[in-house]
UniProtKB/TrEMBL annotation:
InterPro entries: ATPase_NBD (IPR043129), ROK (IPR000600), ROK_cs (IPR049874), WH-like_DNA-bd_sf (IPR036388), WH_DNA-bd_sf (IPR036390)
GO terms classed as biological process: D-xylose metabolic process
UniProtKB keywords: Carbohydrate metabolism, Xylose metabolism
Function noted in UniProt: Transcriptional repressor of xylose-utilizing enzymes.
Family: Belongs to the ROK (NagC/XylR) family.
Pfam families: ROK
Coiled coil: none
UniProt protein name: Transcriptional regulator, MarR family
Gene3D superfamilies the UniProt entry points to: 3.30.420.40, Winged helix-like DNA-binding domain superfamily/Winged helix DNA-binding domain
């Protein structure tokens, strides 16, 4: 859980405690007030006051009766799924998807459009804004129930400033995307990188649900990682923590998009698989479904390329294990769904990490699947619901 450690005014404590109660309900619902108090080490009176406010705002609802411990059966609480809505946006390297999601991260409706390499921001903005308008018009009746817009994008993002620092496939640099969207829609906007959105989806709904701390890796066109501590993102001093794709695993002259040499993502990503395959005579473009099919049919060139890329990712994972001694590493992305790649990565991580540390880590595929990033983008908004100290908050 979040750590309840910040001293301050009564108002601030109340906001922090409200966030904690809200988190406990979405993680353990249906849950009684007494169980929440015990879990968070808060007084029953505090929990009663906070839940009363959350009930008044329709954010939570009473569900069932729990088991009695001798006295009256306690009323159980859960999130009210349709009290508010969030607009989620995932800007990937080749497409943008926009969805409306409810308070339990269920997708109500979604639309998508293709994007292409080096598309100008102006052109992409037009597409994104149109999609958001369409999604709002087609599935939200009460516009005042939209809490905000959460955006996940590939590349480097400054969450605090709401800026896309660098988006490699589009060539965008220092784009103030949050300000642009806030001006357009007049609701709060939160922007983060895609792997962090995936990590949030896993944190609340996937493999990370039972864990306070874990590492999440996304393998796609590039490779990134997110680090979760006490169920919150950790970001590093300039928001750059987790540039896992650019750790060095080789000394050679293969230049990376970051300008350096020997980066992991040139050996373990989708573009590495296709490069390895082409070195052995494969001629097609990268198409994940085709690669999967060729692998299943035993195409030796593809099988070897997948094994090799998986091996390199395993080297990177072994480095993470040796440095951080994590209890859980979650790996997501289309390549990871291919068994040959995943098995090769596990084997290589086992071989290359310290035995005792490997014994204590679980390496799991992301459980939230194809919708993980779009759902995670929505969680950026939900997680900020009680975080804003100066700004407008609900309670
Ligand atoms: Zn690099």
């Amino acid at each position: 859980m979040r750590k309840n450690v910040i001293p301050g005014s009564f108002q601030l404590m109340k906001k922090i405690n409200t966030g904690l109660v809200f988190d406990a309900i979405r993680l353990y619902a249906p849950i009684s007030r007494a169980e929440i108090a015990k879990l968070l080490n808060l007084t029953p009176a505090t929990v009663t006051n906070i839940t009363a406010e959350l009930l008044k705002r329709n954010i939570i609802m009473e569900s069932d009766f729990g088991k009695s411990n001798g006295g009256r059966r306690p009323v159980l609480l859960k999130i009210n799924p349709n009290s508010y809505y969030i607009i989620s946006v995932y800007i990937g390297p080749t497409k943008v998807r926009v969805a409306t999601i409810n308070m339990e991260s269920e997708i109500m409706c979604s639309k998508q459009e293709s994007l292409y390499s080096n598309i100008s921001f102006e052109k992409a903005k037009e597409i994104i804004v149109t999609l958001i308008r369409e999604v709002i018009d087609s599935c939200i009746v009460e516009k005042n129930k939209i809490l905000g817009i959460g955006v996940a994008i590939h590349g480097i993002v400054n969450f605090e400033k709401g800026i896309v620092v660098f988006s490699p496939n589009f060539g965008w640099k220092n784009i103030g995307l949050r300000d642009v969207l806030e001006k357009e829609f007049d609701i709060p906007v939160f922007i983060d990188r895609d792997v962090r959105a995936m990590a949030m989806a896993e944190n609340w709904y996937g493999e990370g649900r039972e864990f306070d701390d874990f590492i999440c890796i996304k393998v796609g066109y590039g490779i990134g990682a997110a680090f979760i501590k006490d169920k919150q993102q950790i970001r590093g001093v300039s928001d750059g923590l987790g540039e896992f794709g650019h750790i060095k695993i080789k000394v050679d002259d293969l230049k990376c998009i970051c300008g350096n040499y020997g980066c992991l993502e040139n050996y373990a990503s989708e573009r590495a698989v296709i490069r390895f395959a082409r070195e052995n005579g494969y001629e097609d473009e990268f198409d994940i479904e085709k690669i999967n099919l060729e692998a299943l049919n035993g195409n030796k060139v593809i099988v070897e390329a997948l094994k090799k890329a998986g091996y390199y990712l395993g080297l990177g994972v072994a480095n993470l294990i040796n440095i951080f001694n994590p209890g859980l590493i979650i790996v997501g992305g289309d390549l990871v769904d291919i068994n040959i790649y995943f098995e090769s990565l596990i084997e290589s991580a086992r071989e290359n990490s310290l035995e005792d540390l490997f014994e204590h880590v679980k390496i799991k595929r992301a459980k939230t699947g194809k919708d993980s990033i779009i759902k995670g983008a929505g969680l950026l908004v939900l997680d900020s619901l009680f975080d804003s100290i100066e700004g407008e908050v609900i309670v």
